[in-house]
Each structure stands twice: as C-alpha cells, then as structure tokens.
Design goal:
- It is a single chain.
- The protein has 133 residues and is mainly alpha-helical.
- The chain has one domain.
- Helix content is 85%, strand content 0%.
- It is built from four helices and no strands.
- The longest helix has 32 residues.
- The chain is elongated and about 50 Å long.
- The N and C termini lie close together (12 Å).
Length: 133
C-alpha cells in the first residue's frame, strides 16, 4: 500500500469533513461558550501543523493496519478511539488549566473528534480498497 496516496486521501477526507464543522456548525457554539478566547486571526501555521501530524498518526496507527487486516470495523473503531484520546488530551487539559473552560465545549469537542476521526478513517479505508481493486 502506498503510504503517500493513503495519507493524501486521508488528509482530503478529514479536511473535507472538518471544514463543514469549522465553517457551518461550530462557530456559533464556540463563540457562545469561549468567544472571549477566540483569536480574530487564527494561527494557520499551527493549524496546518496539527492537520499534517494528526493525519500522519491516523494513517500509520489506524488506516494502514485496518487495510492490512482488511477490516472496515478496525478502521472505524480505531479511528474513533484515536479521535477520542487525541481530542480528550486537548479538551481535558483545557478543563484542568484554563480558567472557566466550559465542560460543554470539552464534551462537544471530544464527541466531534471521535466522530470525525472514526468516519475519516473508515472513508479513507473504503476509498483505498475501492481504488486498489
């Protein structure tokens, strides 16, 4: 399996889904709960670094093993677990150290990370299986 092809497809899938969340769904939620913390000029270099690193982890830890084992279930569950752990690291740390960090944001964000990563892993798995036939 070509790692770079899998990486690129995973990146496109993840960004495609997350862009809907970031532009259509989450802005009003985040503005309501943590608007006082939001930057009017997000650090795009940091965001890019997150996406590039996170997708590398997703492909290496979840998608490639699922492809090797021919298991869509492994892709979905592995992605969901990785998403929960990764997003919980951020959200629970914020809950622990950021004054007045809302519990609701942590719950919403962890649910999103779990869903986004699980679905992205599954879709990447299915796309790679389809184009590799």
């Amino acid at each position: 399996m070509n790692y770079l092809k899998t990486y690129f497809i995973s990146l496109l899938v993840f960004l495609g889904i997350d862009s809907i969340w970031l532009t259509q769904i989450s802005p009003s939620i985040y503005k309501h709960y943590i608007g006082y913390l939001l930057s009017s000029n997000p650090n795009l270099i940091a965001a890019l670094a997150f996406y590039l690193l996170y997708i590398a982890g997703l492909v290496y830890l979840v998608v490639l093993p699922a492809l090797k084992n021919k298991s869509a279930k492994q892709a979905l569950i592995g992605g969901a677990v990785l998403g929960l752990i990764s997003y919980a690291t951020y959200d629970l740390t914020n809950l622990a150290v950021v004054d007045k960090w809302p519990l609701a944001i942590s719950i919403i964000d962890m649910a999103w990370g779990t869903t986004l990563t699980g679905v992205s892993a599954l879709l990447t798995y299915k796309i790679i299986r389809k184009i590799s036939k």
